[in-house]
Amino acid sequence: MSPARIGYWVIALAKNLVSVRGGTAFLSAFGALWLIVEIANYYELFATQRLQALWPLFLCLGIALAVWSCRPATSVKCHLAGRDVAIEILVGDFFRQPGDFVVGTNTTFDTRIAPNLISEQSLQGQFTRRYYPSDCEFDAAIEHALSGIPFDQLIGSRIGKSRDFPIGTTVRVGVREGKAARSAYLVAMARINEHGSAKTTSEDLREAMGCLWAYISERATKGALVVPVLGSRFGRLPQREEIVQEMIKSFVAACAEGNFCEKLTIALHPQDVVDNNIDLQALGDYLRHTCKYALKAPHASQSFGTPVGNTSEAVTTRSLAK
């Protein structure tokens, strides 16, 4: 378990213990133990003096039971009704999850890691550093995948690139981690201004996700996908819980058209969960409700997006950068 995940677990456990849930757990634990004592006394299974001497053991056992009842969840998972598809929300490292990656990027597909452009702390920056020896190699793979896709030429001086592709444009690049080959889908969902600052909107996010699912359903082999909370950090969208709900709703609507993915994993960074008070239990309730009823809704089978990408793209595989 990573230090960040351990930190999340400890903080979440502490919050649960000092909440109403924690008080209820303590009372329930000691109530259950007291019932056992009363039954033992009634049947004279133990001498009263002997039971009184064991009060430290009962105290420790009651605390242990309460802590166990208050342990925080690290994941919630549900199967989509009527489809052989699983959706999981988990707290953990995005890069350690199995499946093909989904990485949010900008409409100009800038890749240069610099303080005033692509942050090294962003998911795209981490992805580049992890799988590509240099920004140039990553840029070359993307440029190859973008070949033939229409774009608008931006006017004026800019820190980054001047070719602006539509929101939802998706390209696929291949990476290799050890002996395993994986794909990564980069979806354009944020616009970068002339100063290198990225920003996205809720409408951009919805459009980008619709195009992403359409692209994957037409061009990818059925497998597992792992997705971060798109647009929540450098995309400047607030309310991470609402973003996750929108991602689930969009994916379920896409699944109404057919099965194109066996599992979707939405990875929440442990520090984000702590800093933004993300309620995993509430997200789990939303997930279960959506998985149970969404495909039965009248609008469930509506069109969910049009793929924007190169239909004849070649996927370049790169080894994990050391």
Helix content: 40-55%
Calculate the terminal CA-CA distance, rounded to whole Å. 22 Å
Number of helices: 10
- Based on secondary structure, the structural category is alpha/beta
And the CATH topology of the largest domain? Leucine Aminopeptidase, subunit E, domain 1
User: C-alpha Rg, in Å?
Assistant: 25 Å
How much strand?
15-25%
Order of helices and strands: HHHHEEEHHEEEEEHEHEHHE
The rough form would be described as elongated
Identify the CATH architecture of the largest domain: 3-Layer(aba) Sandwich
Task: Describe what this molecule looks like in 3D.
This protein has 322 residues and is an alpha/beta fold. It is 42% helix and 19% strand. It is built from ten helices and eleven strands. The protein has helices at 3-17, 20-42, 48-53, 55-69, 123-131, 135-146, 202-219, 240-255, 270-275, 280-293; strands spanning 75-79, 86-91, 100-106, 152-153, 163-164, 170-177, 180-192, 198-199, 223-227, 261-268, 317-319. The longest helix is centred in the N-terminal third of the chain and has 23 residues, at 20-42. The two termini are 22 Å apart.
Q: How are the SSEs placed, and which strands pair?
A:
Layout: H1 3-17, H2 20-42, H3 48-53, H4 55-69, E1 75-79, E2 86-91, E3 100-106, H5 123-131, H6 135-146, E4 152-153, E5 163-164, E6 170-177, E7 180-192, E8 198-199, H7 202-219, E9 223-227, H8 240-255, E10 261-268, H9 270-275, H10 280-293, E11 317-319
Parallel strand pairs: 2-10, 3-7, 3-9, 6-11, 9-10
Antiparallel strand pairs: 1-2, 4-5, 6-7, 7-8
Helix pairs in contact: 2-4, 7-8, 8-10
